[in-house]
Each structure stands twice: as C-alpha cells, then as structure tokens.
Amino acid sequence: MTTRPDPFAPTLAPPPPAILIAVLLGVYLLAGLTGHAPWRGDDGRFFGPVLGMVRDGQWLVPHLAGEAFLDFGPLYYWIAAALATALGAILPLHDAARLASGLLTAIALLLTADAARRMHGERGHAPALLMLIASLGLVVHAHETQPMLAVMVAQAITFWGMAVAMKHARKGALIAGIGVGLACLANGLNALLMTAPLLLLLPSMAARLIGLVAAAAVAGLWLLPLAATAPDMLAQWWDMSVAASVPHGKKFTDTAALFGLLGWFIWPMWPIAGWALWRERRHLGSRTWQIICAAALLALLVTSLTGALRPASFLPLLLPVALMASAGVTTLRRGAANAFDWFGGMTFAAFALLLWLAWSALAFEWPPGLGRHFAKVTPAFTLDSLLWPSLLGLALCAGWTWLVATTKRSPYRGAQNSALGMTMLWCLAVILLQPWFDYSKSLDPAVLSLREALKDQPAGCLSGLGLSPSQQVSLDYRAGIRPHAVADKTCPLLLIAGTEVRDMGEPLWRYERGGGSRKEVLSLYARGE
C-alpha cells in the first residue's frame, strides 16, 4: 500500500543518501559495543549461558555457572557463542559474544525498514530506520548482552515475511513462518504470542499452512533434540515459558510507572505513530494496516500484561510502532515537522550538556553538588585521561552541530536529525563516561581480588549466599569458581554478598566498593562445623 499524498504536507524531497544512513547505523551500533568487561545486571547475567556453551559445550540446554538457565530459549546464546568461538582469538570472549547484539540489532532494523518500504512505498524505508535509531529505549540494550534482541529479530523476520506475502503469498508465508519459529527459539510462548497470530492474516489458507509448517520445522530444530535427550529440561522450560506468559495485574499497581516507562521508551516514535493512525483512520481495514495494528496490539498486550516492569521487556514494542511511525514522518504538516525537528535538536543538545556536566564533575568536581554525588557513589574513582576524551567529545559535538545546521529542509529532516542526535549522544557518553561506567559496573576487580585471596586458603569448595547471577557468572568467567548452594555444609568457605552478616566472626577477605545505594560488599568467611 502506498501512503496517500497529503496536500498540506511539505514538498517531498529525496530521502537521506543510503551511504549516510549506513554510516550512521554502523557508528551507532559499534560505539561502546566492545572494550569493557561484562557489567553487572543483564550484560553479565546473559553472558553466562554463552560461556557455558563455549567452555562447557552446553549447546542444547543453556547453563549459567553450571546450572540450567531457561529464562530464554537458546537462539541469542547460539549466535553469541558462535561469534565468541569464531572471534575469541582476536577479541576477549565477552566482547566477541557481545557482537551478537550489534548484529541482531542491525538485522532487526534493516528488515523492519524494508517491511516499511513494502507496506508504505519507498518513502517508508528511511523513516523506519531513522526512527528506530532515534528511539530512547533501544540504545542501551543494543549494546549489552541481551537475548530480547533475538525476539526483535524474530519479529522483524515475521513482519518482513508478512509484507512480502502481500505480493508473493507463499514466499512471504515461508519467511513469516521462519520468523515465528525463531520467536519460539528466542523466548518461547511469550514471543510466540506476539508473532504466531499474525499468520492468520496471510492471504490464503495455503499460505497459512505454509507458515505454520515452517514455524514448526524451525522450532523443532531445538525442541525435538531436547525432547529426545533431556525431556525433563523441555518440561521445565515449557513450564517456565507458560508461567512467564500468564497475564497478571502487578504492573498496574503502579500505573504511573508503567505509562511513564512506555512514554519515554518509545519516544520519539509514538507521537508520529499516533499521527499516522489518525491520518489513515479510514484505511485501517486494509491488509497493511491490519498487519501493523495487530502486531502493535499483540506486542503491547504481551509486554504490558506479562513479565516484570523492566525496560528490556518492552523492546518488542519498538518495531511495530516504527512501522506505524514510518507512515507518518513524511506526511506531517509543515508546522508539526518543524516542531519535531526543533524539539529533537534542543532535547539532544540539552542531554549532551548534561553529559559534559557529569564529566566535569568527575574531572574537576564541578558542579560541586554533582561532584559530591559521584564522590559518594564511587569514592575511589579518578579519570586517567582528560585531554583526549575532551578533544574527541568537542569534535563530535561540533560535527553534529554542523550536520544539523546544514541538513536541507525536507520531511525526513526531523527523523534524520533525531537519529543523528541519538548517535551523537551515545558516542559522547562512551567517550566521556565509559571509564566511570566500567569502574562502577564491572565485577572484575572484586573477583580478581578474591582469586588472589583464595590462594592463601586450603583447597576446597566454596558456598555462596546472596550472589546475583551476574556475580556468579563473573566468578565462573574470571576465577573458575562456581559457588555451591549455601546448604552444602561440606564447603569450608562461605562467600556472602551484602552488608548484613551476623555471628560469622571476622572475614578472611572483604571487598567494598562504592557508596550509598551502589555500595557493593563481598565477604569471605571460614565456615564453622
């Protein structure tokens, strides 16, 4: 379907050059993707199954520090482990594995852009890609070890197949079915609920059958070997998948937090998507808009009614909203287009100023209040270099200002400048603040210190209490330590995370870092009989 011309819209100019978009996408994806140890949180936790595949050969059932880890299917871990195996001699294992996030994000964005082109005409391609780059919710997760990105790729393949099916029913059905099967491998029933119902919108019963067979064949590549060799793991994975997909009302106990997260996470796409829906309100019954609206509604229902209230859970919302927004970028009224462009420029300039203030507080303790905050949170941190980061940051900001100022007026200008602004902002954060993030979020210093302390202790196992998954992964990765359950009293040593320790005597080793809510404490004790 080609978007209807709007007599009030600005005269349509050519889209930004493909080379500009390609360079922009490359810089956006590669900046900050490598060059740091696994960070606590998702980046460290989801590196665990990749490590299990590469080091222990646990390719069929994802494992974290020796224990089955079935929160997600194996798709993301397979891709990350394959890259880690192929590139482990060139890059550190964690950096090579994290390249999977950049690769999957690139595939998801490119396929969604092509789906927008097939659905809305040539003018839909560039806006879909630019709006996704500009979205606030994607940037951090695209640069961490994040299995939800595999769900996005499965969605993108499904959407692309549905778009292809509008002209080539069987070919498109096969592609869409592959996407649905990959969704099952990415995140089980939760991802299936966001993709499989779309097969009902294929143009014929034969096409729907092709899609279902393709989906079953792809999902069977993992499910059948798992059923044959580890049926108990299959049953456990299915039970977890069903439990994660059951709707619950807990998210709506704090409605303001839910809608607040949705509001910033999908920004700046949702206002443009709303305009596109309004403009096409008389054509929402067309096959194109049926597919887009169904995809968006499924993603919204699943992400809002299931799972935890955490930003990464809402990643599947981005692609269908981008398909909506891509139809609205080039049809904005002149005043709205100018406001979109101006607001985006001012917003990213303001955020860039905040990054410079944060860097100044770390480097010069100015502004004083912010400097005191950083000193409290990371009291021992100092920046090793001031000259090169400041020069690179200034050059980056000058280049962004020049690009924004020289961009010709066109319906694409707001989306292009927003994508440029997000890329500038992310690169600036990497240049100025990555050393601080690495210091405050890396678990390596604690684990390496513990490894040295254990050299003075008798050989034997170690129990753990209160250790997070990312701490367990770091212990396994850097020190080869896999703590036993605290109930295992045969282990002579006990490692405790947290500050509340009673009746344990003096610790054999203790590690403290940070302050306030970010304080990290690990203590090693000799276990009494």
UniProtKB/TrEMBL annotation:
**What InterPro entries does the record point to?**
LipidA_mod_glycosyltrf_83
**Which terms under GO biological process does the entry name?**
lipopolysaccharide biosynthetic process
Q: What are the GO cellular component annotations? A: plasma membrane
Q: Which stretches are transmembrane?
A: 12-31, 75-93, 100-119, 125-142, 149-166, 172-202, 209-228, 256-277, 289-308, 314-332, 339-359, 386-405, 417-437
Q: Give GO MF terms, alphabetically.
A: pentosyltransferase activity
Q: Mainly localized where?
A: membrane
Q: Does the keyword Transcription regulation apply?
A: no
Q: Which domain of life is it from?
A: Bacteria
Q: Which UniProt keywords apply?
A: Cell membrane, Glycosyltransferase, Membrane, Transferase, Transmembrane, Transmembrane helix
What this protein is called in its record is: Uncharacterized protein
Species annotation: Denitromonas halophila
Lineage, broadest ranks = Bacteria, Pseudomonadati, Pseudomonadota, Betaproteobacteria, Rhodocyclales
